[in-house]
Specification:
This protein has helices at 26-34, 51-56, 59-62, 66-78, 91-101, 124-129, 131-134, 148-154, 161-171, 177-184, 219-227, 254-271, 274-277; strands at 11-15, 38-40, 85-89, 107-111, 143-144, 175-176, 206-211, 236-241. The protein has a single domain (11-277), classed as Rossmann fold (3-Layer(aba) Sandwich), CATH 3.40.50. The protein has a 6-stranded parallel beta sheet, with helices on both faces. A two-stranded antiparallel sheet has the order 5-6. The chain is of the alpha/beta class and 283 residues long. The chain is globular, with a radius of gyration of 18 Å. The longest helix is centred in the C-terminal third of the chain and has 18 residues, at 254-271.
């Protein structure tokens, strides 16, 4: 099935994750644009510079906060003529869930998403992936460098070391320590910025994708995230791709995951989305 734009949904908003910039979406942007979609891949606020510039001066990264980032994307989405498909990777997948909770989007896809508040158990590989940040409380106020070794464990574990290093050089930037701490310790904060109303039934359909070889967000985390939505009557789906790592932007075979996400989102946006169906012309 090759999805194409329709009268109800013709725009896709892609949200990058921690350690990344919009450059990480370059293959997905080209693939979706070739199918006729308008594809937007905006940076987190203040992170519009290229990878090389952000490595040189990561000050804008250190300033990131969950609510500020979500507010930024809300403004972009509300300015569009009709609700888009919203897709986010890693922390972008967390932001996607927060945006749907605000009543935005025609359909949402969290691609190996960071956990919302309520996921109680984080496996060793998740903690190992974020150890460069979590090892010091002072990192809450810093942008933490992501070394080639860090990248190879967290993103490039399905790549040769040479290919992993090349991907690190092209895509990786330091991480926002404050934002990472917000998610990691959300269950201790009654006003956590990552809290989602998992009971609401009037949101857009949501798909959560997991990778069987993902060290950052293993399937157990994504599955637990999906289970939190059980009280809702809105569509929530979960799908695992065996053997896939966290590097969905460029790992060989990424096209399979990209196409699955798009096909699902287009079908749901056209048939199940309250934000789109309610705007359809009356007959």
């Amino acid at each position: 099935m090759a999805s194409a734009p329709t009268a109800r949904v013709d725009t896709i908003v892609l949200i990058h994750g921690l350690w990344m910039t919009p450059r990480s979406w370059e293959r997905w942007v080209d693939r979706y644009a070739a199918k006729g979609f308008r594809v937007l891949a905006p940076a987190w606020p203040g992170m519009e510079a290229e990878v090389e510039a952000l490595r040189e001066d990561p000050t804008p990264i250190a300033q990131q906060r969950v609510t500020d980032v979500v507010d930024h994307y809300e403004g972009i989405i509300r300015a569009l003529p009709r609700p888009p498909i919203v897709m986010g990777h890693s922390f972008g997948g967390l932001f996607t869930q927060l945006l749907l909770d605000r009543g935005l989007g025609a359909a949402g896809v969290g691609i190996h998403p960071a956990q919302i508040k309520g996921v109680l158990k984080l496996p060793f590989s998740t903690l190992r992936s974020g150890f460069s940040i979590l090892r010091s409380p002072a990192n809450r106020h810093r942008a933490i460098p992501f070394t080639a070794d860090d990248f190879h464990y967290a993103f490039g574990n399905n790549l040769s070391r040479a290919d992993s290093d090349a991907a690190w050089e092209r895509y990786a930037v330091p991480a926002a320590g404050h934002l990472f701490f917000e998610a990691a310790f959300a269950n201790l904060d009654p006003n956590a910025a990552t809290k989602v109303d998992t009971h609401r039934s009037d949101r857009a359909p949501l798909l959560l994708l997991a990778g069987g070889a993902d060290h950052v967000v293993p399937p157990s985390v994504v599955s637990a995230n999906a289970q939190l939505y059980r009280p809702s009557r809105a569509v929530t789906a979960y799908h695992e791709f065996p053997g896939r790592s966290h590097f969905v932007g460029g790992e060989p075979g990424w096209e399979q995951e990209a196409d699955y996400a798009l096909d699902w989102a287009v079908e749901m946006a056209n048939t199940m989305s309250p934000t789109v169906v309610s705007e359809a012309p009356r007959r």
